[in-house]
Amino acid sequence: MQTLWFILVAFMLTMYVVLDGFDLGAGVMHLFAARDDRERRTILRAIGPVWDGNEVWLIAAGGTMFFTFPVLYASSFSGFYLPLIMVLWFLMLRGVAVELRSHLPNPVWVAFWDGLFFLGSTLLAFFYGVALGNVIRGVPLNSTGTFFLPLWTDFNPYSLNPGILDWYTILIGLLALAALTAHGANYLAVKTEGILQARARRIARLAWLSTIVLTV
What is the pLDDT of residue 67? Predict the structure, then answer.
């Protein structure tokens, strides 16, 4: 039964990465692919219909993990407390930025929320990769099966006292950022047209090249 629940949680997380990944990628491109407010609105309209539904997969995965693997849930949330709180703030910033950017027709107001949307999307994509890097690298468990990692120590992945950020997890974070940017660029290339579509295709090629280089 535990194997079945593990597969289900892994499936939910995979669906979140696949479906919400292009939202994050579009957010990373928000300030670069679009050159004016009209194009930025086009990007937001492209992801708007599926925005909220995609994030349900993350909530479902967290809720399922809570009642099927409570020890893992408790250990992970205590050990990764600081980055998880940061991720929650980034998620909230993205949602608030999308909702509030159009409330005032002021260029400074719109630019502020556009910047937060870009920042939240970029840091989320990066920290998701960092989280994956920590899972691959492993974390030091104590006798009670718990752990706590500071945000960084000496940036050495082979250290006896590792931090969440080291050179290995940072590279995995950059790899995730490049891959999700390519994912978002391909999505926008399908959903847009004209010059914005051409820019999205160019960014997709560059992002895929960066993904290949970082993978190697």
Answer: 84
142 pLDDT above the threshold of 90: no
| DSSP H stretches of helix in the chain | 2-29, 37-47, 51-68, 70-79, 81-100, 107-137, 167-191, 194-215
Q: Do residues 24 and 180 make contact, with C-beta atoms less than 8 angstroms apart?
A: yes
For residues 29 and 71, what is the distance between their CA atoms, to the nearest angstrom? 38
- 93-129 burial code (b ≥16 CB/10 A, e <16): bbeebbeebeeeeeeeebeebbebbbbbbbbbbbbbb
Structure tokens at 205: 């090629």
Query: What's the pTM value of the predicted model, to 2 decimals?
Result: 0.89
Q: Which of 47-51, 96-100, 113-117 has the lowest mean pLDDT?
A: 47-51
- How long a stretch of residues is the chain? 216
Is the Cβ–Cβ distance between 34 and 184 less than 8 Å? no
Q: Is the pLDDT of residue 128 over 80?
A: yes
Q: State how far the Cα of 161 lies from the Cα of 61, in Å rounded to an integer.
A: 30
Eight-state DSSP code of residue 140: -
Q: Give the per-residue pLDDT at 202.
A: 93
Do the beta carbons of residue 33 and residue 188 sit within 8 Å?
yes
d(CA 213, CA 123): 20
Whether residue 160 is predicted with pLDDT greater than 90 in this model: the reply is no
